[in-house]
Design goal:
The complex is a heterodimer. By secondary structure, chain A is mainly β. Helix content of chain A is 13%, strand content 49%. In chain A, the strands form two sheets. Chain A has a five-stranded mixed sheet with strand order 2-9-8-4-6, with no helix packed on it. Chain A is elongated, with a radius of gyration of 18 Å. Chain B is mainly β. Chain B has one helix and ten strands. Classes of the chains: A mainly beta, B mainly beta. At the A-B interface, helix 1, strand 1 and strand 9 of A face helix 1, strand 1, strand 4, strand 5 and strand 10 of B. Strand 9 of chain A pairs parallel with strand 10 of chain B.
Chain lengths: 133, 147
């Protein structure tokens, strides 16, 4: 039994180290109610790269194909030191007749060179709270 | 006997909860077809792009999507209409998990929540022009999305 403990400690250390270098958007899914017609979510964006990088934070449709209307991010571009994380807030309007709306949010490096554009995207659902609910 | 749940909790607490790292192992090379109408890494002399995707969520499965293949760099003045294609194959857990598809069909696949999972993605990009390509440098870019 005791033989497993150093192994587990090593495992935990390894995963903690990889987290510090992961391109991250956390949480990647969330939902919640709002008493107004605007719902906001607090998200955290991290820099996986070895140097300082600027990221674009883009509200999208839930399939991540086109930019979402009536949605905004307080920092649409953020520059992060390597291994650091910063909070952003995304807000979007909910049509009172539909009572619910899901948007996507994508984080991608700005002006990245190379053959691949890496994105991490999440989906967020806001619902109008019922009167008296 | 209690070490099992404890180990799982310790690993989950330390692991990247909602993350994704996409690294390019091989950028790939496009080659011109014999008839001059297709630039593709699948042509003779071309090399596929190889990506390693890691640090995936442990809280649920992750969907990886290939999309929006486009020309990123072209010679000055090149404006011929082109069409794009891409095919991929992906392996994880030493080939226990496998997926393949194309931009036109099955551009997404889902990988399970497994500790320290690494997905190897092999990607072939293709650009077709009915009028051919003028001499110069061409590069493609493809969007790879973790969600």
């Amino acid at each position: 039994m005791q033989l497993n403990l150093p192994l587990l400690a090593a495992l935990a250390l390894l995963t903690a180290t990889s987290a510090a270098h992961a391109q991250s958007l956390s949480p990647m899914r969330n939902d919640g109610e709002t008493p107004s017609m605007v719902k906001g979510f607090k998200l955290y964006v991290g820099n996986p790269y070895k140097g300082r990088m600027t990221f674009e934070v883009i509200p999208m449709d839930p399939k991540f194909e086109v930019a979402a209307a009536d949605a905004a991010v307080n920092f649409p571009e953020i520059t992060l030191a390597p291994g650091t994380t910063r909070q952003v807030i995304v807000t979007f309007r909910i049509d009172p007749q539909l009572k619910e709306r899901t948007i996507g949010v994508c984080v991608q490096p700005k002006d990245i060179e190379g053959t691949v554009m890496p994105r991490v995207c999440g989906t967020y659902t806001g619902r109008l709270s019922r009167p008296g609910g | 006997m209690q070490l099992g749940p404890l180990a799982l909790l310790a690993a989950l607490a330390a692991a990247p909860a909602q993350a994704c790292t996409i690294g390019v192992s091989t950028p790939g090379i496009l080659a011109l077809s014999g008839d001059g109408h297709t630039l593709s890494s699948a042509n003779s002399g071309g090399i596929a792009s190889i990506l390693a995707i890691s640090d995936l969520s442990l809280l649920g499965s992750t969907t990886i999507t290939i999309s929006d293949t486009r020309l990123d760099v072209t010679p000055p003045g090149f404006a011929a209409p082109v069409s794009y294609g891409a095919t991929y194959s992906a392996d994880w857990l030493l080939g226990v998990g496998h997926a393949s598809g194309s931009l036109a069909g099955s551009p997404s696949f889902t990988v399970p929540a497994v500790l320290n999972l690494v997905v190897t993605l092999t990607l072939h990009n293709t650009v077709t022009s009915a009028t051919g390509f003028r001499q110069g440098n061409y590069t493609t870019k493809t969007t790879v999305t973790c969600s």
